[in-house]
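Researcher: Go.
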Amino acid sequence: MKLPRFGRPLNPVLARELKERMRRKRSGFVLTVYLVLLSGALWLLYLGASVAGSDGPGALRLASLGRAAFQTILFAMLVLVCFIVPGLAAGGVAGERERQTLVPLQVTLLRPRSILFGKLAASLAFVAFLVVAALPLIGVSFLLGGVEPGEVLRGVAMVLAVATTVAALALTCSTLMRRVQGATVVSYALVAFLLGGTFLGFGAEMLVDRHGPRGKPQLILALNPLMATADVVSRVPDTGSRIPSPFTPLQTLIDERTKPNDGSMFGQGWSGIAPDTVVGNVAVLKSSDGVPVPVDATGFPPPANGNLAGAPAKFRPPLLNRIPMWALALAGYTILSLGGLTLAARKLSTPAPDER
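Model: Structure:
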């Protein structure tokens, strides 16, 4: 089989996987359920917006509804992809091992990385097919307004990046384990850690710190696909016709990274620490040695000229907090994917003694 433009032979593993996958009845079933769930999420959003209602001009309501519809579809698409991909990739190598076809594949002229590339590309090709199938639903948000093409491209690109990482991790598990069932369980466990375990880890860190997420780098959350995708899509405008999306609370948490980490927030933030006294518009806290320290509305001491109502102190977040979370996420995903595939390639370099 030749590529029409370059004349290079197509990866035989990829060609075989594509033919087998698209001929299975399960592929059509997965596509149908996927589209039904996405449509259901869009319908529930429409019902919720109709019941709740909102104030403001009609154009703003439609724009807010369109933005919320796009982000809701993107959220549902991301969650579904995270749970579909392990089922596609976890049986890639372990399935060959169970069918006793792995050793003949290893002794061919194909390199281990070519085998892994074929398995990985076949899984991602089906994911790309799912993304394309969801484009008509995304087009509904364009009819309502409030969504830019660049936002759609960023969101879809992040979904594909997450799918690539999950597929690479699942393929690594499939290479290291002897059975498809075990590889599938471990793959879903990794996905559960990325989606939920990172929130639990960050919550435990906040319990120990007790000062809230303000000013924190949130490194563990950078691995969460939901947080990374929430960072690449635009924020919902804070207007009277605002309709929140599933990404809205996540975006609020991300915005805390660039705020001053003063640890007080006067009961308006996460810590709930109230000032000892209030003088005019200035709160006064006591330091560890009992000396009163005036603090203005920004949470910082006022300027040295003695004007308690002076201009707010300038704050520049640390270097790590100035890096967008989506960039940290892509860096982490690249390390995980390349590290996993490198380990899998070493495992496939020669047939194992117990498989010959």
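Model: Strands lie at 277-279, 282-286, 292-295.
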